[in-house]
Amino acid sequence: AQSVTQLDSQVPVFEEAPVELRCNYSSSVSVYLFWYVQYPNQGLQLLLKYLSGSTLVKGINGFEAEFNKSQTSFHLRKPSVHISDTAEYFCAVKTGTASKLTFGTGTRLQVTL
Amino acid sequence: GAGVSQSPSNKVTEKGKDVELRCDPISGHTALYWYRQSLGQGLEFLIYFQGNSAPDKSGLPSDRFSAERTGGSVSTLTIQRTQQEDSAVYLCASSLEPSRHNEQFFGPGTRLTVL
Q: Which residues of chain A have a pLDDT value below 70?
């Protein structure tokens, strides 16, 4: 079975600073990886996904993530955050034979002036 | 176009009562998923429907939980004899088909509070 670990429950950062949200996964088979964002009182929105090919994936709102198979990681990065990036971020994994997503516990990104 | 909708947005109930949560997926999406988001927890998979196939119920936490999908569209999640630990946000998602390429689109959720 697969699992996802998001070690940081909260990440405070100043506006215009860079940020990295960490995600590690475990799986015995090939995986597909996703980052979702949840703004207050809203559903989840897909930021980006890794299915195959280039290990650097670019998503919406200036976010990107890099798939590192040897370290079983899929960290999310943004070079300069904005106040509007304040939200909960979830990393998720899906194996080829599964239909469901397995989510991490989420990281709360708090951007302040 | 319209996204995934869920109703009610909030539900407060007393312990022991039954509740029904509704999900309207995006038109044309054949796959439908229910997840639960509890305080301090990630999102837990509950159940998955794909077309006319038997649903994957492997995530349902107890036999008090059940779900159905009528006509391949609207789905209802039913929780019988609710307990306080059932308090959570219940999220529904749909996708065109459950392949690796297809993004799951999530609804806004139903916040369930069991007193």
A: 96-97
